[in-house]
Design brief:
The chain has a domain of about 100 residues. It is about 0% helix and about 40% strand.
C-alpha cells in the first residue's frame, strides 16, 4: 500500500461526557391533557397549560390549569391562572382563580382575583395576595434634565 493510515486505539481512562444543553422552557401552545381514564401519582411541573380530566395525586405547578368536571386533584397547586370545575383537595396559589358551579375545593385559596360561580363550593379560607411582576436585574434611574442658558426657549421657536 502506498498510503497507510494509522488507527489509534482509544486511550484508557475516564469517559468524558458533555451534558446536552437544557432547552429553554416555553409553552408549546398545546395543553397537556390528563384523560378521564388516567391517574397520575407524582408532581407535575410545566410552564404551559394543563387540563385534568382524570386524577392527579401530587403537587402541580403550571402556567394555566383547568380541572374539568369529573377531574380531581389531591395536592397543592401553583399556577398563573386556574379554572376549576372538578374537585380539589389542597391549596391553590394563583393570580386568577375561577371556581365554576360544579367546583368542589377543600383547601385554602391564595389569589389576586377570585370568581366563584353560583353553586361552586369552597371549604377553606380565601386570602388575597399581591403577586408582584418580576423586577429587572437593575433599575435605571431617570436622568435629571439640565437647563442650558444658550438653548432657545420652546415658545420662541
Amino acid at each position: 500500500m502506498m498510503f497507510k493510515t494509522k488507527v489509534e486505539s482509544p486511550r484508557p481512562g475516564p469517559a468524558m461526557s458533555i451534558p446536552a444543553p437544557k432547552p429553554e422552557m416555553r409553552p408549546s401552545g398545546v395543553p397537556t391533557i390528563i384523560s378521564a381514564d388516567m391517574t397520575i401519582h407524582g408532581d407535575l411541573n410545566s410552564v404551559g397549560d394543563l387540563q385534568v380530566e382524570g386524577t392527579v395525586v401530587g403537587e402541580i405547578t403550571v402556567g394555566k390549569l383547568v380541572i374539568a368536571e369529573g377531574g380531581s386533584v389531591e395536592g397543592n397547586i401553583n399556577a398563573k391562572t386556574a379554572r376549576i370545575a372538578g374537585s380539589l383537595n389542597g391549596s391553590i396559589r394563583c393570580a386568577s382563580v375561577t371556581l365554576t358551579a360544579t367546583a368542589r375545593v377543600f383547601g385554602d385559596v391564595h389569589h389576586e382575583l377570585l370568581a366563584i360561580e353560583t353553586g361552586g363550593l369552597l371549604e377553606g379560607q380565601s386570602r388575597r395576595i399581591v403577586i408582584e411582576p418580576p423586577q429587572p436585574a437593575f433599575e435605571e434611574k431617570p436622568r435629571a434634565l439640565s437647563h442650558r442658558e444658550d438653548a432657545p426657549a420652546l415658545d420662541s421657536v
